Amino acid sequence: MEGHNFSPRIVIVVSNDSFIYEALVDNINCKIELVDTGFKDYINSLGKVDVLIVDKLLSGHEIPIFRVDILINCTKNKLSQNEIYFAKPFKLTDLIDTIERNQDGKNLFCSINKDWVYSHQLGRLSSAEKSIFLTDKENALFQKLLCIDGHLAEKDYLRHEVWNYHQDTESNTVETHLYKLKQKLPSGLLEIKNSGCFLSIDNLK
């Protein structure tokens, strides 16, 4: 039942020169872009960035951090609490190894519309204004609904996939968690029907 195709993983290099970009193009198997100016608007237009490499003096407010899964900072300015810092001079092989280690595909990181970005690893939906943190079960439910074709699932399917319950076991468990999840999520995102539920998503990247 699972089969949604997410957008390709993408690495963005923010720099005044193309040295790092050219080294990565030859050694990393994913989409790579070099951006000098207008990078904030560009990142917003992409919806999400899997790896952002900053090799240009910036301040943290110049970057939509919530849209970035992994931030690699090659400058002396601290940009985020969760950044990976590379002091110059560094070996490009170390940078490539770091990207590859963090690009294993185990973390689902995607934009679910123009405002919200989801990280399965963090159990979090984030926008420019706020973050919503999910419990383990809520996170598992949300991921299942994101990944399933059409973002539509029967409650019995969710009960089996998330709790490994049989059809006649604790029938109210899924309903309880779904209603709590709906209360947390942005308005209109999760719709619950008698036998199933779906995420109302127009633009998933």
UniProtKB/TrEMBL annotation:
What is the official name of this protein in its record?
Answer: DNA-binding response regulator
UniProt xrefs under SUPFAM superfamilies: C-terminal effector domain of the bipartite response regulators
Instruction: Write down the superkingdom of origin.
Output: Bacteria
- Keywords annotated in UniProt: DNA-binding
Q: Which residues form the OmpR/PhoB-type domain?
A: 130-187
One GO term in the molecular function aspect is: DNA binding
- Kindly give the InterPro entries that the UniProt entry links to this protein: OmpR/PhoB-type_DNA-bd, Sig_transdc_resp-reg_C-effctor, WH-like_DNA-bd_sf
Its taxonomic placement starts with: Bacteria, Pseudomonadati, Pseudomonadota, Alphaproteobacteria, Rickettsiales
